[in-house]
Specification:
Helix content is 41%, strand content 17%. With 424 residues, the protein is an alpha/beta fold.
Length: 424
């Protein structure tokens, strides 16, 4: 059967970007509306800030980009903001605001002698009190003075933002330090009350940063919480993409992909794209192709290698290199210190999103070929790993140890996936 339209695989299955053909409209839990309906309803109503929160790689940015494309909103990346000035400079730049005013003042009077212009045709600048700079040209009977006055960056950016009547979206808001968040939210408070739409995208445990930063925002923040994807939602990616490329995913492969995806649409898109490329399907095929995975272990290990290796290596290294750290033998014939042993134990647990201390200790028994480390040693390693994940790994912490509840949380589905496959 000849298909009328041809599509590129890279446009159908989009890993890490904004999918179009395989975008899945998810329903808002507990309500008869989609997630994008919730965002659109906020835009239609306003007078609050909207926080969109969810686990890493759960589709927060993709959702907001669907409703607020880059040409319909002002997007700021939280990871690029170190100071409040960084924030307002990005706003001003995005709105093409000139943050300085220039005017020329001419004074007529007799001045003897000649004049010259120095350096590449530019006037020599004379800095004056009050943040002004002037350039003087002395002629026979007049002095021309060009005065440059800096505007207030924050006020200028805010006025232009309100006048633009477009939403402000701050992606990865949690990457901004608490002190800078406080200054930004405080400045945005009044414009929000006047109708400016502000969307803050963050991880779940930072959902209320806007309120913590500015107490008067209490009651002025709408929250949209996004969960990891269900198997049915992830299956929709396959269902929508396969007919466009004229390919068939066998049910056992789809189920395997669902099992390994960690509830992440990003990983599911990655699996679908890779299996197509492995089967030499780079665009729509004229004859239906049945897809297959030749070597399952290699398939997943290759994808894992490109995900969280830097984070794994930092955690395996521990808080510092120590020559006296005891090397332990593993049952698979390899060896390593206690930090590597704990990471292998997390893999043995199935790299679940939540593991108890007893789960980890039981898995250590499965992998170690010698005596178990003491309880306090295991606890110290988990505390140190949590600190490394928070302080030394760029981006969202991949894991967090709750010492009080004795539970380890793995927040990043990519890290869970890496643990499961890279250590095999």
């Amino acid at each position: 059967m000849m298909l009328q339209e041809h599509y590129l695989t890279s446009k159908v299955f989009v890993a890490g970007g904004q999918p179009s053909f395989t975008y899945v409209g998810r329903e808002f839990v507990g309500a008869h509306q989609t997630l994008e309906d919730h965002v659109q309803n906020y835009l239609d109503t306003g007078y609050k800030a909207l926080t969109v929160t969810g686990p890493s790689k759960s589709g927060k940015t993709v959702l907001c980009r669907r409703v607020i494309p880059k040409d319909k909103g002002l997007w700021i990346q939280g990871g690029e903001i170190r100071t409040e000035e960084d924030f307002w400079t990005q706003v001003a730049s995005s709105l093409n605001i000139n943050i300085s005013e220039t005017h020329t003042q001419t004074d007529s009077h007799t001045v003897g002698g000649s004049f010259e212009i120095s350096g590449q045709g530019k006037l020599p600048l004379v800095f004056e009190a009050g943040g002004k700079a002037s350039s003087n040209v002395a002629g026979a009977n007049q002095t021309s003075k060009t005065i440059v006055t800096a505007r207030n960056l924050r006020n200028s950016a805010l006025k232009a933002l309100e006048a633009s009547n477009i939403p402000l979206v701050v992606d990865d808001f949690h990457y901004i330090s608490r002190e800078v968040q406080k200054d930004i939210v405080r400045a945005l408070k009044s414009p929000i009350f006047d109708g400016l739409r502000v969307v803050l995208i963050a991880v779940p445990h930072r959902a209320f940063d806007a309120v913590r930063s500015e107490r008067e925002m209490t009651g002025r923040v709408d929250q949209l919480s996004i969960n990891l994807w269900s198997r049915a939602e992830l299956s929709a990616i396959v269902d929508q993409g396969s007919p466009l490329l004229n390919v068939k995913f066998p049910s056992e492969i789809v189920n395997d992909f669902l099992d390994q995806s960690q509830g992440s649409p990003h990983l599911m898109q990655e699996f679908c794209s890779k299996i197509c490329i492995q089967n030499k399907i780079r665009e729509t095929t004229d004859i239906e192709a049945i897809l297959s995975v030749k070597d399952r272990l290699s398939f997943f290990k290759e994808i894992a290698a490109s995900t969280s290796k830097p984070a794994f290596d930092l955690l395996a290294r521990g808080p510092r290199q120590r020559s006296d750290r005891k090397t332990r033998r593993f049952k698979d014939g390899t060896s390593g210190d206690i930090y590597l042993a704990v990471l292998h134990a997390l893999s043995d647990c199935g790299a679940r999103s939540k593991m108890t201390y007893e789960d980890i200790r039981s898995s250590l028994r499965n992998i170690l070929a010698e005596e178990m480390p003491q309880s306090h040693e295991i606890g110290r390693v988990l505390v140190n790993m949590s600190k490394i994940a928070r302080d030394k790994i760029e981006g969202e912490a991949v894991l967090e140890w709750d010492e009080e509840e004795t539970v380890l949380h793995i927040a990043d589905p990519f890290f869970s996936f890496y643990l499961k496959w890279a250590t095999q």
